[in-house]
Amino acid sequence: MVLEVRPVIDWDKGKAVEFLLQSLGLSDSENVIPIYIGDDRTDEDAFKVLRERNCGYGILVSQVPKETEAFYSLRDPSEVMEFLNSLVRWKKHSL
């Protein structure tokens, strides 16, 4: 059983992404590409913000294909790890 506790305010993961980008001064940065990885319907708000602002990439983690605002999908946590390791290797070689 999963229990999700939410405050009684107008707040979601999309608003959290916007808040982080703005508060860190990255909302208009051309040197930063936000990547949001999530596996839950509550992550769709964050995927949608990145898609609408055209400022990053949402990645859905799901074993089954489903409609999503994410740009890409990975099947499971092991694929997430493989993807993140690939990013690290790419960054090391691009220096």
Structural account:
This protein has 95 residues and is α/β, with parallel strands linked by helices. The chain has one domain (13-26, 33-94). Helix content is 41%, strand content 13%. It is built from 3 helices and 3 strands, in the order αβαββα. The protein has helices spanning 13-23, 44-53, 77-94; strands spanning 35-38, 57-61, 72-74. It has a 3-stranded parallel sheet with strand order 1-2-3. Helix 1 (13-23) packs across helix 2 (44-53). The model has no long low-confidence stretch (mean pLDDT 93).
Q: Can I get a quick summary?
A:
Belongs to the trehalose phosphatase family. The protein is α/β, with parallel strands linked by helices and 95 residues long.
Q: Give the overall silhouette.
A: globular
Query: Number of DSSP strands?
Result: 3
Helical run tally:
3
β-sheet strand percentage: 5-15%
Give the neighbour order of strands across the main sheet.
1-2-3
- Largest sheet, if any? 3 strands, parallel
- Spatial extent as radius of gyration: 15 Å
Distance between the termini: 45 Å
Q: What's the overall average pLDDT, rounded?
A: 93
Low-confidence stretches: none
Which structural category fits the helices and strands? alpha/beta
